[in-house]
Design a protein that fits this description.
By secondary structure, this protein is of the alpha/beta class. The chain folds into 2 domains: 154 residues, Alpha-Beta Complex (Quinone Oxidoreductase, Chain A, domain 1), CATH 3.90.180.10; 141 residues, NAD(P)-binding Rossmann-like Domain (Rossmann fold, 3-Layer(aba) Sandwich). The chain contains 11 helices and 15 strands. Strands 3, 4, 5, 6, 7, 14 and 15 form a 7-stranded mixed sheet that branches. Helix 3 packs across helix 4 and helix 3 crosses helix 10. The radius of gyration is 19 Å and the shape is globular. The relative contact order is 0.16.
């Protein structure tokens, strides 16, 4: 099979297209755990870019096939997995997704509803599970609250906008360009403010004095103004640091309006909790059936142009989810 391989940690330029043996569902030694998938689409995300430089917390041995998310058709499934050949699925593979065949654990494999195509399926698991985990389980969002979303035109941002609205919240998106504003509105943002036009004051204005929850996958120099954008009892949920720098906060700021800073690391938390993964999958499936969740797919590349897909993300040019069509 064809696959993308990283053999040195020098960034997107290190990606090469190679021929490798096909993996099998028996790759998972515990009975009932493995699902082998003919990949139709594989997602490319910011963690993949970090991993290509050895900067991500998960550091596989070289050489390795990157790619954590795929969608496709089951070709082999372990007994007890609940899947059979021909099933359309979306899955989190952790590694090996940027290839013609990949293997995923059964509890991180989900039936792909007919409403979504394979590219949308590849955009489903990581972003939407992260969004639900950050909003509901960590941010404790309730119906009628207001949610501010940074990086609102990216994969996590567009997913967060859709999940927040499905939970009954009003959303305010922060974006940096007119094109990204268009994407945020397509994802369902109720209000959009520009990052380069005094966004904090605009947020306070359109929210009537502050939002209840901030979802921040960006970090960097926006962090303090994010705290200032919260109303009393507000929660700032830290999802990541695509802005490059990790901010610090003087904790006396938290006392002023009894606000919280909360971490939302879905991956490390959920991997060892199969029941939680199935619960999140069921919640997202209900949101798909209700018409709330429709992943926004941006640039699409063939498998052999995986390096170009990573460069697009690395240059902050991605809109929605970047996908490789296999």
């Amino acid at each position: 099979m064809r696959a993308i391989q990283i053999s040195e940690l020098s960034g997107p330029d290190a990606l090469t297209l190679v021929e490798l043996p096909e993996p099998e569902a028996s790759h998972f030694l515990t009975p009932g755990q493995g699902v082998a998938i003919d990949v139709r689409a594989a997602a490319v995300s910011f963690p993949d870019v970090l991993q290509s430089r050895g900067l991500y917390q998960f550091k596989p041995e070289l050489p390795f096939v990157p790619g954590a998310e795929v969608a496709g058709e089951v070709v082999e499934a372990s007994d007890g997995s609940g899947f059979r050949p021909g099933d359309r699925v979306a899955a989190l593979t952790m590694l090996g997704g940027m290839s013609e065949r990949a293997v995923a654990p059964a509890h991180l494999t989900y039936r792909l509803p007919d409403e979504l195509d394979f590219a949308q399926g590849a955009a489903l698991v990581l972003n939407y599970h992260t969004a639900y985990f950050a909003l509901r389980l960590r941010g404790r969002v309730k119906e009628g609250e207001q949610v501010l979303v940074h990086g609102a035109a990216g994969g996590v941002g567009t997913a967060t906008l859709q999940v927040a609205r499905a939970l009954g919240a009003r959303t305010v998106a922060v974006v940096s360009t007119e094109e990204k504003e268009r994407v945020a509105r397509e994802a369902g943002a109720d209000e959009v403010v520009r990052a380069d036009e005094g966004w904090k004051d605009r947020v306070l204005e359109v929210s009537g004095g502050g939002v209840d929850v901030v979802i921040d996958p960006v970090g960097g120099d926006r962090f303090i103004d994010s705290l200032r954008s919260l109303r009393e009892d507000g929660r700032l949920v830290v999802v990541g640091f695509t802005g490059g720098s990790i901010p610090e906060v003087k904790v006396n700021r938290l006392l002023l309006r009894n606000i919280e800073v909360v971490g939302a690391g879905w991956g490390a938390y959920a991997m060892s909790k199969p029941d939680l993964c199935r619960e999140l999958g069921a919640e997202i499936e209900r949101m798909i059936a209700a018409g709330h969740v429709r992943p926004i797919v941006g640039a699409r590349f063939p498998l052999e142009r995986a390096a170009d897909a990573m460069r697009l993300i690395d240059g902050r040019g991605a809109l929605g989810k970047v996908v490789l069509e296999v």
